[in-house]
Amino acid sequence: MTQGGQTNPGRRTVLGAAVLGAGGVTLGVPGPASAASSKDGGSYRDLPVPTVVAHRGASGYRPEHTLGSYQLALDMGAHVIEQDLVPTKDGHLVCRHENDITGTTDVAEHPEFASRRTTKSVDGVSLTGWFTEDFTLAELKTLRAKERIPGTRQENTLYDGRWTIPSFEEVLRWAEREGRARGRRIWLHIETKHPTYFRDLGLGLEEPLARLLRTYGRHRKNSPNFLQSFEPSSMRRMAELVAAPRVVLLSGAATRPWDFQVAGDPRTVADLVKPEGLKWIAGFAQGLGPTLDLIIPKDATGKLGTPTTLVRDAHARGLVLHPYTMRNENSFLPADFRRGTDPTAYGDAFGALKVYFEQGIDGIFSDNPDTALLAAADFTRRR
Ligand code: G3P
Ligand code: CA
User: Fold this and answer.
1) How many A from CA of 324 to the centre of ligand 1?
2) 193 Cα to the center of ligand 2, angstroms
3) pTM for this entry
4) 253 near 295, Cβ under 8 Å?
5) What burial class does residue 66 get, using C-beta atoms within 10 Å of its C-beta: 0-12 exposed, 13-18 middle, 19+ buried?
6) Which stretches make up the GP-PDE domain (predicted)?
7) Of 100, 335, 359, 360, which residue is least crowded by CB atoms under 10 Å?
8) Right CATH for 2-98+165-322+354-382 from 3.20.20.190, 3.30.70.1730, 3.90.1150.10, 3.90.226.10
C-alpha cells in the first residue's frame, strides 16, 4: 500500500480485518478510560484499506444515528461507525445530522413542544422546525427517532419509534461495552456539525467533545477515532485540545466552508484541493473527507467523468482520503450505475464502488456497510 509516496507494509487488507477485527487489541480492565478505547493499539494507518465507514450507522437499513443503526453496522463488520454531533440547550452532545430534528424524530407529535417550532438561519440557510439547542437532553430523550427518507427507504419505517436520540456519551459507553465483548477497539468517525454557528450561541462543540474523549481515553494519537468537520477551524481547534486524528471534510468545488465565510477567508474548496491548500490542511489534519465528485466529477448526464488528481495530490501530502457517500439506491448512484427506472431500487453499487476503490482512496462512507465491505473484499482479492 502506498501512502504519501511511501510503502506501508503494515496496513492490513480488508480480508485480514474480517478475521482480526479492525484495530484488534486485547482489552484491559473495564472502565471509561481503561478499556477498549484505551491508549494501546494501532493507529489509523493500521486500519483495513479500503476502510468502510458506516455513514450514520447502517443508515440504509435503520433510522440514522440510533443505537440500532450503529449496532447493525458493527454487527455487519463495518470498520468505523460515524457520529454527527450537535449540542443540546444544556451543553450535552447528541448524535444528529442536523440540529433541526423535524425530519428525524417525532417531535411534531409532541404538543408540549409545539411552541418551540421556530425559524432560524443556520449557516446562512433559513430553516423552520425544532432545534436541538432549544431542548435539554432530558427533553430530547422523550422523543423517538424515525426514518429520514421514508419514501426511499420504506422498510426502515418499521423501526420508527424504536430508539431515542443517543447522546454521544451513550455511544462512547456502547463502544466500550462492544469493545469489551468483542475483544477489540471500536473505531468511531466523529463530526462536529455547524461549529461556528454553535460557538456563536455559546455552545462550542470542541471543548465538551475533547472532555468526553479524555474521559473515555480516546484523545490520543492512536485512539480509535477520527474527528471530522466541514469547517477547518473546528479541526484546528481540536488539534489544540486532543491528539486524535483529524479529517477535513470537503463539499463541492465551488463551495466555501462556513467558517471561511464568517472570517472573510476567500478560499473555496477548489482552492483547498490545490497543492497549496492540501499543504495547509496537512499542517493540522491527517485526512480528507471529500465528496465523491472531487475524486471523479460527473458529466452533465450524471455519469462519471475523468478522475481528478486529488487522490495522488493528497497522498503526496500524507493525507488519507475517506470520501462520502455511497448508497445503494439508484437515486444516489452515478447515472452509469443505475439499473431500471425505479429511483428507490438498488443499482449496481458494486460497480460504482469498484471504480471508486480503483482511484486509490483509503476508505469510504457508506449507508450500506455490508455492500461496501463485500466490494472492498472483492477489490482486495483482485489486487
Ligand atoms: O462526514 C462525512 C459525511 O457524512 C459528510 O456528509 O452531510 O452526511 O455529514 P454528511
Ligand atoms: Ca457526517
Assistant:
1) 7
2) 8
3) 0.91
4) no
5) buried
6) 50-376
7) 335
8) 3.20.20.190
